[in-house]
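We emphasize that the prediction below concerns an isolated chain of 219 residues; any contacts that depend on oligomerization or on bound cofactors are therefore not represented. The input was used exactly as deposited, without trimming of termini.
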Amino acid sequence: MASKINYGIFPNPLPDADGNTTYQVRHTPTGTMSEKEFLAHLKYHNTYNTIMMQSSLTVLKNEIIEQLRNNNRFRIDGIGTFQMKVGLKVKYDDEGNPIKPHFTDPNKIMANDVEVQGVSFTPDPSFVNALKDRISTRNLNGRGPAGRNKVYTREQIIEFLDNYLKEHHSITRRQMQYALNITEYRAQKWLDELTAEEFSKYYCKKQGTTFVYYRYGWE
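Result of the prediction step, given as a token string:
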């Protein structure tokens, strides 16, 4: 039986060279399997020793980190390759607003201007081919402009944020993007606008390489 892959259709934030709006498709996930759920799944469907599996996952994670710190890629045959991503540090002004790095002279970039910003993953071709096998697609957003990128009012965005923050205390741009089924650009635009207001109820903190948003007094 073929699996159904969920996708949505969204406009690109910038027009093409002729001024036309172009569109893209993105996967629409329905959830995330946690490590705890994964181990429970193995225990129920297989005869694996879940304690040994959990230990193996910890060893694998630590080894990947160690190899990346040693400036090596880490390849798992049949799965793919992990590689460290580095970039320029985002600095902040006196009010805590992020300042985008801007260098016109490469000789002025020093070691303390560079930071680890994440990890990239390149899947093994056999892994992708296995994923493509016996698969079909399903558009969750329907057709037409509303399906491609739902338009929310300011009041609706605030209502969503307040309900979400009451339960989860914080939100990221990615979490808002997928919860509302809107583009990365539109989610970031709403967050930037709401945190920049004179008497804003919301503020932002950087955790690692991620900007996390809170409501004052609801931390």
